[in-house]
Amino acid sequence: MAHDSTSLAGSTLTDTARPREEGPDASDACTVVVALRDSPGALARIAATLGSTPVLALAYVVTGPRRALAEIRLPRAHVVRARNKLSRMVDTTYVSDPGPTPTRTL
Prior knowledge:
Elements: E1 5-8, E2 11-14, H1 24-27, E3 29-37, H2 42-49, E4 57-64, E5 67-75, H3 79-87, E6 92-95, E7 99-100
Antiparallel strand pairs: 1-2, 3-5, 3-6, 3-7, 4-5
């Protein structure tokens, strides 16, 4: 399988790894922010909880001692179910209402 590659500051980004901004999921996506207690298994629990959900992007940031935020981009059709699952997770302290995903211009 051939890959289209682009060189970025000494590293190579292949076509299979390039972020996709087109398609039905990208235009009808929203972002949910989850506040949780940071623990050794917190990120793994998020991944397991959303295993059957199409996640478009996920960012995990430790914001303080034993506190973290996860920003999860999902297709709008899956947000309610994912939000309900995330709110039942052991480490979760808050799940935001879904908001529109900001569009980035490169």
